[in-house]
Amino acid sequence: MQEQLPRYTQGVVQPGTPVQRQPGTPVQRVAAPKAPSNVRSRSTQEKRVECTRSTQENPKPRTQARSQSREVQAAADLQLGAEVTIEGCDCRITDALGMGSFGTVWEAEDKKTKVKLAVKEIACWTHNELMNALFERHLLTVFSSRPGSEGPTSLGPHDAKIPALVGHEVLKVNPRRVRLAMTKVPGCALEDFLEERRRVAAATTAAGLTVSAWDRFSEACMFAHGLISQLAPVFERISALAIHRDVNTHNILVDAKPSMMPNFGLVDFGLAVDALCWCSTEDNPETKNRPTRVGVDEVHTWRYLDIAGDCRYWPVSAWTQFLIGWKEIDARPCLRQEYQVQLDQHALGITAMKVFVELLSPPAPKEQSNGKGNAGDQGVPQSHGSIESSDIPNLQMEIWTLLRAWDRYWKRISPVHKKLISTFHHGGDWEVLKQMCENTNFYENIARDLSHLREAIHAAAVASKAASAKHDQGYDEPASPSEVPTFAKANRLFQAMLMLISDGVTPDMQYGPEAWQAIARTLSYTESNGTFNSSELPTASCSSTASTAEAPPDRRKESQAVKKPSDATLLPS
Fold it and tell me: Based on the domain organization, do 298 and 388 belong to the same domain?
């Protein structure tokens, strides 16, 4: 008799079961036995090795062993050239797209339609990991369907910007594996695109060629503006249900063709959470059976669930959670709102700023930067084409200040990111890393860096708005008619960035679907002929003094002393 999965997997397809082409029922959380404490510490590579181990270590009756061996073979065959069937979808694996902390993603081709697909395989060592993989499947089902529809449908103008679920199945091997077949979002990782542009810029400089500062400024505005304007409707839809929690240049794809506007997409919902459960309390009956990501002891709220994503894109509140604890966040309304509902906003803002800065002032390629400087500087690209203060007319000082503010932030965060990733993957001591942050005043400095970055963005927004004005009073270099549209676009871009990037102290920032709608309106706003009023811009900060996020060291130690073992852990992307 075929083994049956528990009731929390209702609607989940197992190999050999009749295929149902309708969306499955939502995954529900139920209590599960605690996993061994050492399971979470396994590295991704160790899990991948374990996935291919034979079941001979636990002998089964002959007939059952044969059935099991077929599934083990199916799991082992997920490689280049393999042909697999996932919920009735026959596909051929054609390429390896990448591997994250919790799954491997392959490119595949539907053998019938020849459509490109993405196949993600997730090894699930514990009950919670299986639940989380099924929650990702649940989100993909919801986002690819309209209310009342029979299955995946077009989502309108942004339907190709996030993957739509095509099929799924659970392999009953040890460990369990969840396979998700989904539409492939076109393009490459934004980080790969930026690295290629770094190499092109380095080669251009080495050949003695130059690209004008104005051309680079125009392109930087176009790319960053397009990134936010295209993904704002996507996040508007997502934020009504979930929080992605892993927005960065690796999970945003760009399809950039010559002489065409770039197209952006968002992938990898593996660390996403249900928004209602995330903002709730552990004992709330309204969220007891809602599908969401769960952690150790079935925790599912922001207080105790793992801290996720690339730390270079974290807001101040995420660093507060990591270094101090949730009680400090709960005591500060700005930090609490930021951590509960603004994680994706802030991360997209930092991503857009990175795109703008690197296209405006390209850093050296990674292979060059990794060979220079001491170990602490490795992985932090050094700029080889800095914009001088006089290169951008009417924005000389503002652009120079903005580049300096970004450079300070990125150089401070990158070495810590490298140490954090090393600690995570090699089983290092988190307390050593936290002590290093304590000794270097990292928390206070990163909060100050983000505050200064917002101030620089605000100043650039004011200056670009003024430069785009139709009159030329007070300017030594009035904008030419051809420059006005670029200055206007830059102004809208900087305004949107102020609505995205937070510093843990600015009050009354919008969030949720309303924030994404406001951002979209800001980016599409048509300039009027009215007089410019800088008070219309979002404020840079609610305080001109030291950040209230800068808790004194003794306060931090006091907060750390009361942390419970089930407090949030760290899960980098």
Answer: yes
- Give the whole-angstrom CA distance, residue 321 versus residue 388: 38
- Taken as a whole, the chain contains a residue count of 573
Sign of CA dihedral 197, 256, 179, 72: negative
Tokens coding 131: 């639940």
Q: Residue 85 is inside which H or E element, if any?
A: strand 83-86
CA distance 378 to 310: 18
Three-class DSSP category at 52: coil
The pTM of the full predicted model, rounded to 2 decimals, is 0.80
The residue segments making up the domain with residue 136 are: 7-34+51-185
222 domain-assigned: yes
- Shared domain for 420 and 457, answered yes or no, is yes
Residues 174 and 207 in one domain: no
Report d(CA 184, CA 188) in Å as an integer: 11
CB 277 within 8 A of CB 172: no
Q: What is the CATH number of the domain that holds 25?
A: 3.30.200.20
41 domain-assigned: no
Q: 41: which DSSP letter?
A: T
Q: Which amino acid is at 489?
A: K
Q: Are 23 and 151 in contact (CB under 8 A)?
A: yes
Residue in the block written with tokens 């290629």:
196
Angstrom CA distances, 169 to 56, 121, 400, 533, stand at 24, 10, 53, 57
| AA letter at 533 | N
pLDDT tens digits along 374-405: 433 444 445 444 555 447 888 889 999 999 99
